[in-house]
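Please check this chain.
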Amino acid sequence: MAKIKIGVFGAGRGMTMIRQILHSKEAELVAVCDKYKPLLDACRKEAEACGLYNITYYEKFDDFFNHDMDAVVCANYAHEHAKFGIRLLESGRHIMTECLTMANMAEAVRLIETVEKTGKIYTYAENYCYTPVRWEMRNIYRSGALGELMYAEGEYLHDCSSIWPQITYGERNHWRNLMSSTFYCTHSIGPILYMTGLRPVQVSAFETPNMPFMRNLGTASGSLGMEIVTLNNGAMLKSLHFNIKSTRHSNYQLNGDLGGVQDLGDGRIAVYTEKPGENCRGEYKTYTPAPIVAGTENSGHGGGDFFTTYYFIRSILGDEEAHERAIGVYDAVDMCMPGTLGYRSIVMGNQPIRLPNLRNKEERDAWRNDTFTTFPESAGDQYVSNNVHEQIDIPDSVFDEVRRRWEAGEPG
């Protein structure tokens, strides 16, 4: 059987997928696109070290788009995944998008309808769902051992200030400098939804003011975002993410009416379970779960990076288990909506916002033209600033210094 021909759009974050495809027995890398030539050179070097010389490298998307490809990994700028992904789907390609799914609700509707219309495979690369601990949490919850979910926490506490020059390049209009405090919510919310199979139905969101350690790197947004999400069984989910000084990188926990489970942050899991009728007389234990597949635990992001690409390829090949384990378009949109509409909640004084179920066609029209976002080119006349507390004018000198640090390889 011929290998699936895959292209990768975005050679920075896309390098993880590139390396995996280079060693795949079921897929071949045929093209890479990135506007930054040194990244293409790094990809070329990686491929040629594997003895592969027939890959084409592009600096312009339109040239890349015309290459003969069955599927594309969209690892480009996070607020443009839907924009380019929809075009690729309409051309007959399968796609996997990196985080996030869409810049606004109008894009969410269009992306879903394009997947439905084309019948092509769409998967979402939320790698935090596939670490050994979170996979075990999923298995425990779905076994019924915790009973009905009452409360959950997802915390992605990643202080990016040290790497800000390397991920924004001193660009004033880089998406990370323009995003809202709640935009990048998928690492905190995604694993909880994936573990439980539940759906978000309402969000109230909050943020801190912009902190000087982030303002001095070029962003005016609130430095820490939080969403309080109601799930469709009535449970509550607290999502907390991004630039905060913390003793831990992440926290995930599920609490049901029969027990609880928590990611301890060191590769171990803590579990407390009761049998029905044995209130407060349960069993507590901690242990280190095995990876989903042995040998994948060092693949990046706690072992999750392997599975996003693996399940994408296997889904295209018709593997039913991979299709069930991959994150499809409806679930991907659910993982991102609380952040997209969470910022509307913040703008409205933290008011609760109902989240639609976009699986239902009758709920889509209310959002079809909703372009509310902090990204000007995606928002049109529905643009809103990414700072609701004060108007911050960041001088050009800040971006000049960030660019200097990037070029010099210095931390933030």
The chain has 15 helices and 15 strands. The mean pLDDT is 95.
